[in-house]
């Protein structure tokens, strides 16, 4: 299967409020997945928003960081976690309002954050309750939830060890379908589709 990722795409990682090492662990876990392509060379750049320097939830700082490190014509895929989801969704809206393109938006445990936009949105949750209750504020096109439930930080630290359900809807009859997989596999498949 050929990847839909352009050589001119940018992945913008928006971590939460935690040690930076967890984000490095997240990226390593994605690389370990058999369908990994995040850093395979098909994406021009991967940016990590420095939450040690700026608030994770600040859309303004995320947008300014993105503008300093990539061109407005570069399509962006956002991958955000926890408090970073709040900042990333605002930055994604602003990126589009300024004429940019958002290819996909992934929210890891963005509980309580309304997620809507003119781009595909994907939710990843550490348990079924977070999955169900977050969907009330925008379910997105596809989602994943851990089953059995895992700790909030473990979802970000070790998505390759997070088993659960990939949930989507079939276009023909709007029925839900589920596939048992890992969070890392879900992310890598979304990246291929973006």
Question: Can you tell me about this structure?
Answer:
Helix content is 32%, strand content 24%. It has 194 residues and is an alpha/beta fold. It has a single domain (10-193), classed as 3-Layer(aba) Sandwich (Rossmann fold). It has an eight-stranded mixed beta sheet with strand order 2-1-3-4-5-6-7-8, with helices on both faces. Helix 4 links the parallel strand 5 (121-125) and strand 6 (142-146). Helix 2 packs across helix 3 (83-97). The protein is globular and about 40 Å long. Mean pLDDT is 89; it is low at 1-7.
In short:
The chain has helices spanning 20-32, 59-69, 83-97, 128-134, 152-157, 183-193; strands at residues 10-14, 45-48, 76-81, 102-108, 121-125, 142-146, 163-169, 176-182. The chain has 194 residues and is an alpha/beta fold. It has an 8-stranded mixed sheet, sandwiched between helices.
Uncertain runs are 1-7
Name the CATH homologous superfamily. Answer: Alpha/Beta hydrolase fold, catalytic domain
Give the strand order of the largest sheet, numbering strands 1, 2, ... along the chain.
2-1-3-4-5-6-7-8
Q: Please give the largest β-sheet.
A: 8 strands, mixed
Transmembrane segments: 76-95
Keywords: Membrane, Transmembrane, Transmembrane helix
Question: In terms of topology, how is this protein built?
Answer:
Blueprint: E1 10-14, H1 20-32, E2 45-48, H2 59-69, E3 76-81, H3 83-97, E4 102-108, E5 121-125, H4 128-134, E6 142-146, H5 152-157, E7 163-169, E8 176-182, H6 183-193
Parallel strand pairs: 1-2, 1-3, 3-4, 4-5, 5-6
Antiparallel strand pairs: 6-7, 7-8
Transmembrane segments: 76-95
Keywords: Membrane, Transmembrane, Transmembrane helix
């Amino acid at each position: 299967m050929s990847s839909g990722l352009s050589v001119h795409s940018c992945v913008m990682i928006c971590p939460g409020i935690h040690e930076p090492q967890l984000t490095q662990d997240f990226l390593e876990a994605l690389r370990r997945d058999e369908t990994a392509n995040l850093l395979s060379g098909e994406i021009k750049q991967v940016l990590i928003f420095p939450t040690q320097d700026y608030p994770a939830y600040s859309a303004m700082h995320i947008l300014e960081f993105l503008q300093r490190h990539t061109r407005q014509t570069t399509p962006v895929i956002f991958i955000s976690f926890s408090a970073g989801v709040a900042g990333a969704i605002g930055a994604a809206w602003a990126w589009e309002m300024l004429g940019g393109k958002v290819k996909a938006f992934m929210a890891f445990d963005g509980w309580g954050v309304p997620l809507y936009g003119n781009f595909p949105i994907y939710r990843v949750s550490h348990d079924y309750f977070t999955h169900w209750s977050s969907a009330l504020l925008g379910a997105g096109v596809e989602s994943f939830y851990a089953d059995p439930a895992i700790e909030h930080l473990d979802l970000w630290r070790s998505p390759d060890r997070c088993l659960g359900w990939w949930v989507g809807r079939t276009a023909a009859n709007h029925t839900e379908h589920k596939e048992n997989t890992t969070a890392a596999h879900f992310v890598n498949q979304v990246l291929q589709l973006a």
